[in-house]
Design brief:
CATH superfamily: P-loop containing nucleotide triphosphate hydrolases
Strand order of the largest sheet: 2-3-1-4-8
Distance between the termini: 20 Å
CATH architecture: 3-Layer(aba) Sandwich
Bound molecules: adenosine monophosphate
Helix content: 40-55%
Number of domains: 1
Largest sheet: 5 strands, parallel
Radius of gyration: 17 Å
Shape: globular
Length: about 220
């Protein structure tokens, strides 16, 4: 059941790949009618549509590397200006580097500054299992897990009967690289946002419903 909640948040969900940012961002955004801006989803759409941006991004993504800052920054700048993102949004997967965080700060008017940055804390040992078992619905985008959140029928989405797929960057070859990139390029953002006094932490190594309830409390 989707419960309507009211949030006027402009929020960043920060954390390692596999920490649950996407799952929670989808749920909070749907319940609170705020825009869910996932740079990973936007890039995957570009890849699926075979656009020049998608073709350029795919190589980086499949290797577990970051797409260059200038590409991502202009993509987010444009998205955040859309009418549905005027009042409130959740950024999921952006910023991932210091230049991206600085660009975001520069681009937000003072009256529409960030309200929260929420760090999804999960021990690194748990992340590999979360990523390698993750499956996404090719039709509705719902996220499942072969062990922690299995569907009733293997390989078929419970919500829409769509086919479940494994992301190409959730294969073992790319997972190690993504975690290394997170450690070296994204983890430094914790200190950046701590200094800006907007950082909140949620223990995301708990069942999704528990994490969801805590997020609503933190964001209200
Ligand atoms: P995600 O779905 O957030 O795990 O993103 C999947 C992939 O898209 C990442 O591994 C990167 O290759 C690329 N990507 C997504 N967001 C960003 C970003 N903010 N900066 C650079 N690359 C990104």
């Amino acid at each position: 059941m989707v419960m309507a909640v009211s949030l006027q948040a402009r929020c960043v969900f920060l954390g390692a790949p596999g920490a649950g940012k996407g799952t929670q961002a989808k749920r909070v955004a749907a319940a609170a009618s705020v825009a869910h801006i996932s740079t990973g989803d936007m890039l995957r759409q570009e890849v699926a549509a075979g656009t020049p941006l998608g073709r350029a991004a795919k190589e980086f993504m499949d290797a577990g590397k970051l797409v260059p800052d200038e590409v991502i920054i202009s993509m987010v700048q444009e998205r955040i200006r859309q009418p549905d993102a005027r009042a409130a949004w959740i950024l999921d997967g952006f910023p991932r580097t210091l230049p991206q965080a600085e660009a975001l700060d520069r681009n937000l008017p003072r009256e529409a500054a960030l309200t929260h940055v929420i760090y999804f804390a999960v021990p690194e040992a748990a992340l590999v299992g979360r990523l390698s078992g993750r499956r996404s619905c090719s039709r509705c985008g719902a996220i499942w897990h072969v062990e922690h959140q299995p569907t009733r029928r293997e390989g078929i989405c419970d919500r829409c009967d769509g086919e479940l797929l494994q992301r190409s960057d959730d294969r073992p070859e790319a997972i190690g690289k993504r975690l290394e990139v997170y450690r070296s390029q994204t983890a430094p953002l914790l200190a950046y946002y701590r200094d800006h006094q907007v950082l909140r932490e949620v223990d995301a190594n708990r069942p999704p419903d528990v994490v969801y309830q805590e997020l609503l409390k933190l964001m209200q």
